[in-house]
Amino acid sequence: MSKVAIIGGGGIRTPLLVHAMAKSPTLPGMSEVALYDIDSDRVSLIADLVRFAVTQAGASFRVYAANSLEQAVEGTSFVLSSIRVGGIHARARDERLAIECGRAGQETTGLAGMLMAMRTIPVVLEHARIIERLAPKAWLINFTNPAGLITQALTSQTSLRVVGICDTPSELFHRIALALGQPERAVTSEYFGLNHLGWVGRVLVDENDVIDEIINDDAKLRSLYHADLFDPEMIRDLHLIPSEYLYFYYHPDRALANQKAAGAMFVLGRSVAGTARNEDDLFVRAEHGRNECQREQGRSPRREKAD
User: Fold this and answer.
1) What is the mean pLDDT of residues 269-280?
2) What is the mean predicted confidence (pLDDT) over 58-77?
């Protein structure tokens, strides 16, 4: 039986993540999930939501909010790390500074990404030292951005077994399958690069490379992205399908101009504050929903902690 620890377990994606783990046929031996977060109130709420998600998935492993990082990782088989050091306001500062220096502001690439890495790497390495001591055989799965730099720091500066992952490539694969009108399982996209910064070089259907079917069709190309990021002719010249984050490298002047036109240089702090308020509102609604559910069941709010 295996234990999983999630650092940054108070994040809003945690219930979906653990629900997917509970439904996965490849993790039948999971016995417990420990959530750790520096915000104890949020992680307590998320733990309740995760327990509900686990029940809905038909699983029965234990879920709890750990009192400390040491309790969360001790004896674990897998550690998932997903943190943002400094929170959303530090992101706002990083991106604003980049724009003021004449560069597009984006938290995982360029100047803002480097600032985020410099702030995050010491914290992640401190976590890694604790994992080395208490769970030296564990796999550390890094979600924390900027994913490439953080994973490089972990692999070069620790003895842990480390994997860096990101959902950007898989989202691109999904959109490629939609553009082709094919079920996702029927399409194989060959991706190379580092997390956010990569390209699809081949798209296989029935072992035939059909990338030209997408590259030579402007409508299909544009359907791969949430916005009109790349010139189709540039993609045809590359004969590669780029990740959306490469927009900040292929078109840095356009990216900066778009941010300035949107008033990002002046309202970024306000916009991020709005994002923070929206996230806080989500937690308030989640707390209300939990309490209503528990009152209907005739019990007081549940707070399960590590022993």
Assistant:
1) 50
2) 94
User: Token pair of 225, please?
Assistant: 């992205």
pTM summary value: 0.82
**How many domains does the structure of the chain reveal?**
2
Domain hosting 153: range is 2-165
Q: Omega into 28 within 30° of 0, i.e. cis?
A: no
159 phi/psi in degrees, rounded to 5: -100, 5
**Is the pLDDT assigned to residue 269 strictly greater than 50?**
no
Q: How many CB atoms lie within 10 A of CB 153?
A: 19
CATH number (domain holding residue 173): 3.90.110.10
Residue 297, in any domain of the structure? no
Q: Of 199, 73, 196, give the one whose Cα is nearest residue 141.
A: 73
> Which residues, other chains included, contact 159 with Cβ-Cβ below 8 Å and sequence gap of 6+?
132, 136
Q: What is the spatial distance between Cα 25 and Cα 44, in angstroms, rounded to a whole number?
A: 27
Residue 261 pLDDT class (50, 70, 90 cuts) = confident
What gap in Å lies between CA 241 and CA 188, rounded to an integer?
14
User: DSSP string of 129-159?
Assistant: HHHHHH-TTPEEEE-PSSHHHHHHHHHHH--
